[in-house]
C-alpha cells in the first residue's frame, strides 16, 4: 500500500497553534474513495502529521489512485474549515482558493512531495523484516 506526503510552509513562530489545529481536525466522512460512477476506487488507510520549524508534512497511507484523494478531501467540510483556520499561519498565502473542491484538489496536487522510496516488509528480499 503506497504512501504520499503533502508539504505546508508555515510561519515557524506558530508551530504550536498549527499543531493544535491539526489535533482537532474533523475526519473525513468516509475513508472510501469513489470513481465518477460512485464505485469504490480506493481507501484512505491512515494519515500522520509532522511539524518542525517552518515545515509541516502530512503523510497519507492509501490504496487506489492518489489523484482521487485530493478530490475526496476537497469535498469534505472539515478540510475547508481547517484550510480557513490555517491560512493566518502559512508562510505565504495559497496560490489557489482552497475553499473550493477544485482549488483544494489543485493545491493538494501541487503540494505533493516527490517520493524517493517506499519500503515495506512485503518488499524485503528476505520475506519479512
How would you characterize this protein structure?
15% of the residues are buried. The longest helix is centred in the middle third of the chain and has 10 residues, at 77-86. 29% of the residues lie in helices and 26% in strands. A hairpin with a 5-residue loop joins β2 (32-34) and β3 (40-52). It has 4 helices and 4 strands. By secondary structure, it is α+β, with helices and mostly antiparallel strands. α2 (66-74) packs antiparallel against α4 (101-110). Strands 1-4-3-2 form a 4-stranded antiparallel beta sheet. It has one domain (3-114): Alpha-Beta Plaits.
Question: Brief description of this entry?
Answer:
This protein is α+β, with helices and mostly antiparallel strands. It has helices at residues 15-23, 66-74, 77-86, 101-110, and strands at residues 3-9, 32-34, 40-52, 55-64.
Rg over C-alpha atoms, rounded to the nearest angstrom: 16 Å
- Portion in beta strands: 25-35%
Put simply, the count of helices is 4
Q: Structural class, judged by helices and strands?
A: alpha+beta
What CATH architecture label applies? 2-Layer Sandwich
Overall number of structural domains = 1
The biggest beta sheet is recorded as: 4 strands, antiparallel
Low-confidence stretches: none
What separation lies between the terminal Cα atoms?
A: 16 Å
CATH topology title: Alpha-Beta Plaits
CATH class: Alpha Beta
Number of strands: 4
Q: What is the residue-mean pLDDT, rounded to a whole number?
A: 86
Q: Helix and strand string, N-terminal first?
A: EHEEEHHH
- Tell me the strand order in the biggest sheet: 1-4-3-2
| Overall outline | globular
> Which percent range fits the helix content?
25-40%
Amino acid at each position: 500500500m503506497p504512501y504520499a506526503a503533502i508539504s505546508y510552509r508555515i510561519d515557524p513562530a506558530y508551530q504550536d497553534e498549527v499543531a493544535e489545529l491539526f489535533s482537532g481536525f474533523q475526519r473525513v466522512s468516509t475513508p472510501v474513495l469513489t470513481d465518477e460512477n460512485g464505485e469504490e476506487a480506493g481507501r484512505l488507510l491512515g494519515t500522520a502529521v509532522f511539524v518542525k520549524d517552518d515545515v509541516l508534512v502530512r503523510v497519507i497511507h492509501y490504496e487506489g489512485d492518489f489523484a482521487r484523494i485530493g478530490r475526496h478531501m476537497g469535498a469534505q467540510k472539515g478540510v475547508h474549515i481547517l484550510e480557513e483556520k490555517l491560512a493566518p499561519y502559512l508562510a505565504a498565502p495559497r496560490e489557489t482558493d482552497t475553499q473550493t473542491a477544485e482549488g483544494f484538489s489543485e493545491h493538494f496536487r501541487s503540494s505533493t512531495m516527490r517520493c524517493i522510496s517506499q519500503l515495506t516488509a512485503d518488499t524485503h528480499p528476505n520475506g519479512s523484516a
